[in-house]
Design goal:
about 80 residues, mainly alpha, 3 helices, transmembrane, Integral membrane protein, membrane, transmembrane helix
């Protein structure tokens, strides 16, 4: 079960982090809107770096959840 949860959290982290980076880069360097984050929230470009950090935290949390050894139940 931990493995499934770890992969799920990690996958969500990749999507959120990528969208945060794409939204930041598009606003900061090109002055346009890329991705789908701008359709959900309207934030300044630096706030999208925070969203990318949340994505990174989800990735790290998912990997740690996936790699923790499971305790065996005593019979």
């Amino acid at each position: 079960m931990r493995t499934t949860i770890g992969y799920t959290v990690e996958s969500i982290g990749y999507v959120v982090g990528a969208q945060g980076l794409v939204s930041f880069a598009s606003q900061a360097f090109f002055g346009t809107e890329w991705g789908w984050m701008h359709k959900v929230v309207d934030l300044p470009s630096t706030a999208y770096l925070g969203i990318a950090a949340v994505g990174l935290a989800l990735i790290v949390g998912g990997v740690k959840t996936r790699k923790t050894p499971q305790r065996q139940k005593a019979a």
